[in-house]
Design a protein that fits this description.
74% of the residues lie in helices and 0% in strands. The chain contains 13 helices and no strands.
């Protein structure tokens, strides 16, 4: 299976590349600042949350975080969330946005969703670079866990790709999916310890975090970047399990519904 995926990637690499370029250009065509918005929008989100929680609400981390800056901790939670949010929201609409291409051209429509994943990944890498610059100014030490980052990105991206496949296929037939998604993501954001530390949650309720996939991915990224604790093998297993289940379900539903895409779109 893995060999088939790699072979298909090689065969369709130019198609995927063109889709990514086309997507980025279409998003900012006609705007005065053009591609600058690619950086301004997520940067503004980070700055607003950092200002509100760090300076207005004066949120701080407990002593168990070893004096770590709340701003850095917050940013390391927001960046994977923004990656997730962009891929899911835009991936859900990927088939509808490319309806004319799907109706006129014969190709594997999974790559349409995949190109949106890679587009979001590009944004993620840009902000990852910014985080490393901030680490230098805030004197944040980097540990051996950073070597786990590529594995983390693959697992997290697989999880997102599975969800995007599932929702994009359903969205072709049920356009209410897109309306429901914005509400659901807002709720999911606040149910996940992104802007608040897990230490404020009573122990008896922390079980619910174990069944929240995003908790493991957000915490995993923070642990790799900030080394906030020992390597959590159980959390790593959860991340892998959620990724496999997500991709399996996404592929199954997508393959079952894909034959009718051209007719419905």
């Amino acid at each position: 299976m893995f060999h088939n995926v790699l072979s298909s990637l090689r065969e369709n690499k130019y198609l995927i590349k063109n889709m990514i370029i086309r997507d980025i250009k279409q998003r900012y065509t006609g705007s005065a600042l053009g591609l600058v918005w690619f950086f301004i929008q997520p940067l503004a989100t980070i700055l607003i949350y950092t200002f509100v929680f760090s300076f207005v609400l004066k949120s701080k981390l407990g002593p168990e975080y070893g004096g770590l800056s709340f701003s850095i901790w917050l940013i390391c939670g927001l960046i994977p969330w923004m990656y997730f949010n962009e891929v899911i929201v835009r991936g859900t609409n990927s088939l509808i946005d490319n309806a004319s291409l799907i109706k006129k051209t014969i190709f594997n429509t999974k790559w349409t969703v995949f190109s949106y994943l890679l587009s979001g990944m590009f944004s993620f890498f840009v902000f990852l670079f910014i985080v490393f610059i901030l680490f230098f100014f805030f004197h944040v030490s980097i540990t051996w866990k950073l070597f786990l980052l590529p594995v983390y990105i693959i697992i997290f991206s697989t999880f997102m790709y599975g969800i995007a496949l599932l929702l994009s296929a359903l969205n072709v037939y049920l356009r209410d999916i897109n309306q429901f998604l914005s509400v659901f993501l807002n709720v999911w954001f606040y149910l996940t310890p992104i802007v608040y530390p897990i230490t404020i949650i009573p122990d008896k309720y922390r079980f619910f975090l174990e069944i929240n996939p995003l908790y493991h991915y957000i915490q995993g990224f923070r642990d790799i970047m900030l080394s906030t604790g020992d390597f959590n093998i159980s959390s790593f297993c959860y991340m892998t399990l959620f990724a496999v289940l997500s991709l399996t379900l996404g592929l199954k539903v997508f393959n079952k519904l894909k034959d009718g895409f051209a007719d419905v779109l």
